[in-house]
Every structure is written in structure tokens, then in C-alpha cells.
Amino acid sequence: MDLELEGKAALVTGGSKGIGRAIALGLAAEGARLAICARERAGLDRVAAEVRERWKQEIVVISANLSELTEVERVVTAARERLGRIDILVNNAGAIRGGAFLDIPDAQWIHDWNLKLLGYIRMSRAVFPLMQAQGGGRIVNVIGAAARNPTPTYLTGGAANAALVNFTKGLADLGAPSNILVTAVSPAATATERWESLMA
């Protein structure tokens, strides 16, 4: 299937493993020019090596902690400088931990929401004006199904994901006049390291 992504510039966060890795490989297979970021450089390098070997194309690798605003801004600047533009942003970084509600300390809520919830918001805010200036773009937010299916042992993630659904809908309305399509994707249970850790 030709998704008409040949030559498009895409930035994928959380691109070192799991769903983010699969997204990066899928975009590469369609001919998109890629930048991927995550905290762990080794994982990013493995994905980049696979892209270069299978599709003979260059890929930008940026190691960063997206829970920090300055790091988000650095990633967007670096991706734009290397790719020339950003046509597609896939927000995927951030693994919110579960646990018994009364046992989860305040610091865990703040840490996990700072990476996923605020990470998506900050990344979108950094890319949005670039897409406006270039006449459009696509923002895809990968949001867990817990947004709509709350469970007592994953209230941290469910509440953040519900907030991201709201954010995505609002940003879609804001982006429509500028030809910026903003969508949410909620994968079902997927066999990744992340899923295994949640089950444990």
C-alpha cells in the first residue's frame, strides 16, 4: 500500500523500542525521512541501524529526556535542522507506571505526567507553529485505551490518557484552519516490553 509518505519528514518520540520502533520502521518502509528520539541512545542506534540496512536511508537519532522543556525544544530544533521541515509528529514517548492508588506517591504522579502528558503537550506546542508556517502537517498522539477504560490499579495512566484525548480533540480544532490534522491512536494490548512490565 502506498500511503504517499515518500519524502515526508517525520519525528517519532519514544522511537527506540515497542510501538515507537514499529512506527518508525513503518514510516521508513513508506519512504519517509526520519528523526527518532528517546532517552536511551543504544536503543535508538539499533533502530537506526535497521533502517539503514533495510531501506538504505539516513535517519536522525536524538537522545533526549522529554520530561524537560529545554530538551523538547532541542529535539524539535535538531530534527528541523536535519530534515529541513517536520511534516509528521508522532507523540509516543512516556511509560506511566501503575500501582495501587493509595500507595502511589505524589512524586510518581508528577514524574510520569511530566514525561507523557506534558511531553506530548510541549512537543505539539513546539511543532505546531512550524506546521502552520509550512502550510500543514500531521500530529498523531499514541494514547492508551485506559483513557476510556479506567482501572483502579492504573489511575495514573488512565487520567493522563483521558487528558490527552481531550487535548487531541481541542488541538484538532485549532489545527484544522492551518491544514494540521491532529489524531489520537489507541492501540489494543500489544506484545512489547512495556506490556510485560505492566502485567508484572
Structure, described:
The chain has one domain: NAD(P)-binding Rossmann-like Domain (Rossmann fold). Helix content is 49%, strand content 16%. The protein contains 7 helices and 6 strands, in the order βαβαβαβααβαβα. The chain has a 6-stranded parallel β-sheet with strand order 3-2-1-4-5-6, sandwiched between helices.
Low-pLDDT residue intervals, each spanning 5 or more residues:
none
Highest-level CATH class? Alpha Beta
Output the CATH homologous superfamily.
NAD(P)-binding Rossmann-like Domain
The portion of residues assigned to helices is 40-55%
Q: In sequence order, what are the helices and strands, one letter per element?
A: EHEHEHEHHEHEH
- Helical run tally: 7
What is the rounded distance between the termini?
A: 37 Å
Report the portion of residues in β strands: 15-25%
| Major β-sheet profile | 6 strands, parallel
The strand count comes to: 6
